[in-house]
Write a structure and sequence with these properties.
The two termini are 31 Å apart. It is built from 27 helices and 11 strands. It is α+β, with helices and mostly antiparallel strands and 715 residues long. 62% of the residues lie in helices and 7% in strands. This is SSD domain-containing protein.
């Protein structure tokens, strides 16, 4: 690290010029990168996806999309009976005017299940072809316009469905990636201004801007090699903002500390690189490990988030360890004005806090663990699936149309129908068998091209309730089991089938992913801390903290104790199936950042001859404000992400934000100091055989004085 610092300082003008070019390239190419991102949650090789692709290939629509529900409501005093021609004309117009859709209604099924019980409203299922472009607009407006033109004045047309409800019924919403990033940056600047109390607060923001744009540049070639999920753009912008600022904040804070200790600017940069830079490297690698572990999952969109997400810490580490020292080595002292805050001694607040925790280490550890395990207990009641329709929208045309159908006795299962692909000669027989299954409301066999092509037919199964979580998806399992015994059945598709496949393919491989992350992180941290016990504690605490975070998500979102108050969104009833894995992958590395920051400094203080307790107090006294500020900056970035459209994005953002705050407070500022103090000399053991394997110096505890006071240094 010293040699690297000297190299950067010798070539600092070239380093700044290089990143200037990257900045320009990023501005020019970021838009092209985001245009190439895709929306694709398919699971290649899984039964539901295979059937969905067959349906899409044969019929041109449906398979892996939830249909739109188009409603035709007649004026008061009129009923569908007697106006079947007008109603049928509306649905026919949709099929004619909107390309690539397949309409299933009473006209081609002969089933009165498409009417409400008051006979005033009829509806149709409109299956459409999936478009992977994140810029694809909803078909809500074209469908509504086509149907409205075909009916007399006074007839009300509505369009609803899972996608329409999730978007609030429009094609936009939220401030967009750039707006969210600017919101996060404003919040981060406020925190940095408090931390530095000088113009130096602008430096981490500059580094973050370069890092984010560099990530988009690196991401562009990846989009040509494989499909990359549109979610990555939000992660790059917001998590990239937080991580790059955190790393730069750590580096600049250490540089200021060394300057306040009397070092000249050159030496201060070098020491900051040796100490803070070392921690940044290990933190970045830890974050990357958590994300790259996603590539073991047999799901393309999760793998793409692993590849794309791993670029975030890579870019953050590169910019922090090159651009930051290059700028500090040149104009750092001039920018650090007016210098109101000094770093020549540890924070008195955090030193007093840690001393109190160390004195009452047993109470502190027991209290923190009790709180975490209580949340872990809540986590055990998690339901994996999708947000219920009740939580997707509480107003707007799509919500009103759904309310009309529900009041009319139409089951919410119409939002998530199953499509059973069968041989045409077995369609009626299959439908009759499936209609007997518990939880099935109706079974529809469309006539004509809407349900029959090339010797294959689609039997549409409407469940009693929408199949959006691990409990309500039971009817899908029963349908799949029944079709396995019926001749001529090719497969079952639909969102419920996709959930079952996801649970099998992804969560079935989760133990492997967890093992890879835990082992790689443990080995990395053993090398970083030169200890066998400290890394084990770090990994175990991280896993407990993550389970507790998911417990808070159950309370906040699944049970609605928070989502309604903060976002006006009702209880989701379940956590979207891919979100727990994303929260785990990102938080495992991000929260480990703070562990690395704190324990690296505690290790450094212990190596100067301090006792374990004194090292803990001094280490957290030096890093407490830093970790709290870094966590707050990341939290503000996630709060900005939560301002985006869609319940899923809000759920992911709040999960990450809650996890960061939980980890930076209960875990890092209460549990870590108490446990390190309790472990005492055992923290510092790294036997010679392990040290030789990892190519580091062995470590053994040095003699410590009797604990006359927890804040007294050794000898």
């Amino acid at each position: 690290m010293r040699r690297w610092a000297e190299f950067v300082l010798r070539h600092r003008k070239a380093v700044v010029a290089f990143w200037g070019l990257v900045l320009v390239a990023g501005i020019a190419l970021a838009g092209r990168t985001t245009d190439r991102l895709t929306i694709d949650f398919s699971l290649p090789g899984q039964p539901g996806t295979v059937t969905a692709h067959r349906i899409e290939h044969a019929f041109g629509s449906g398979g892996d999309t939830n249909p739109y529900l188009v409603t035709v409501t007649l004026p008061a005093g009129q009923t569908v009976t007697g106006h079947e021609t007008d109603v049928g004309r509306a649905f026919t117009a949709v099929g004619t005017a909107v390309p690539g859709v397949r309409v299933i209604d009473e006209a081609n099924t002969g089933d009165k299940a498409f009417r409400t019980k008051d006979d005033r409203t009829a509806y149709a299922l409109v299956f459409y072809r999936f478009n992977p472009s994140p810029h694809q607009k909803l078909l809500t407006d074209p469908i509504r316009v086509a149907a409205q033109k075909a009916v007399p004045a006074g007839v009300a047309i509505g369009v609803t469905g899972e996608d329409t409800l999730a978007s609030g019924g429009d094609n936009g919403g939220g401030p967009g990636v750039l707006g969210e990033t600017l919101l996060g940056a404003v919040g981060a600047l406020a925190v940095l201004a408090f931390v530095f109390a000088s113009f130096l607060a602008l430096l981490p923001l500059l580094v973050a801007a370069v890092s984010i744009l560099a990530t988009f540049v690196m991401l562009l070639p990846l989009t040509y090699a494989t499909d990359v999920s549109f979610i990555v753009q939000f992660l790059v912008a917001l998590i990239g903002l937080g991580v790059a600022i955190d790393y730069s904040l750590l580096f600049v804070t250490r540089w200021r500390e060394e300057r306040d200790h009397g070092r000249d600017n050159h030496d201060a940069v070098v020491v900051a690189m040796e100490r803070a830079g070392h921690a940044v490297v290990f933190s970045g690698v830890t974050v990357a490990i958590g994300l790259l572990a996603l590539v073991v999952l047999p799901v393309p969109f999760m793998r793409s988030m692993g590849y794309g997400g791993a670029l975030i810490p890579l870019a953050s580490v590169l910019t922090t360890l090159t651009l930051t020292p290059a700028i500090l080595g040149g104009i750092g002292p001039k920018v650090d004005w007016p210098k109101i805050r000094h770093e020549d001694r540890a924070s008195r607040f955090w030193s007093r806090w840690t001393a109190a925790v160390v004195r009452r280490r047993w109470i502190a550890a027991a209290t923190a663990l009790a709180a975490l395990f209580a949340l872990v207990g809540v986590f055990l009641g998690i339901k994996i699936g999708l947000a219920s329709s009740e939580s997707l929208a509480k107003s707007g045309p799509a919500y009103e149309s759904l309310q009309t159908l529900e009041r009319g006795g139409v089951p919410t299962g119409a939002l998530t129908p199953m499509e059973v692909l069968v041989r045409t000669d077995q369609a009626r027989t299959t439908a009759a068998q499936l209609a007997r299954i518990d939880g099935v409301s109706s079974v529809l066999v469309p006539s004509g091209p809407a349900g029959n092509r090339g010797g294959q037919s689609i039997v549409v199964v409407i469940p009693d309730h929408e199949t959006v979580n691990s409990k309500s998806v039971g009817v899908v399992k029963r349908v799949k089991n029944a079709t396995g015994q019926l001749p001529g059945v090719i497969g079952v598709a639909g969102i419920g089938a996709a959930q079952i496949d996801f649970m099998h393919a992804v969560y079935g491989n989760f133990p492997l992913m967890l093992t890879i992350i835990a082992l790689l992180t443990y080995v990395l941290l053993v090398r970083a801390f030169r200890s066998l016990l400290l890394p084990l504690k770090a990994v175990v605490l991280n896993l407990i903290s993550l389970a507790a975070t998911l417990g808070l998500m159950v309370i906040f979102w699944q049970d609605g104790h928070g989502s309604n108050a903060v976002f006006g969104i009702a209880a989701t009833g379940a956590i979207t199936f891919w979100i727990p894995l994303m929260v785990f992958a990102f938080l495992f590395g991000l929260s480990m950042d703070y562990e690395v920051f704190i324990l690296s400094r505690i290790r450094e203080e212990y190596d100067t001859g301090r006792s374990t307790d004194a090292a803990v107090i001094e280490g957290i006294g030096r890093t407490g404000r830093l970790v709290t500020s870094a966590a707050l900056i990341l939290f503000l970035a996630f709060a900005a992400l939560a301002s985006g459209p869609g319940t899923d994005l809000k759920t992911l953002a709040t999960g990450l934000g809650i996890g960061i705050l939980l980890d930076a407070t209960i875990v890092r500022m209460l549990l870590v100091p108490s446990l390190v103090s309790l472990f005492g000399p055992w923290n510092w053991h790294l036997p010679g055989w392990a040290a030789r394997l990892l190519r580091v110096a062995p470590s053994y505890p040095h003699p410590e004085p009797a604990k006359s006071g927890p804040g007294q240094p050794a000898g």
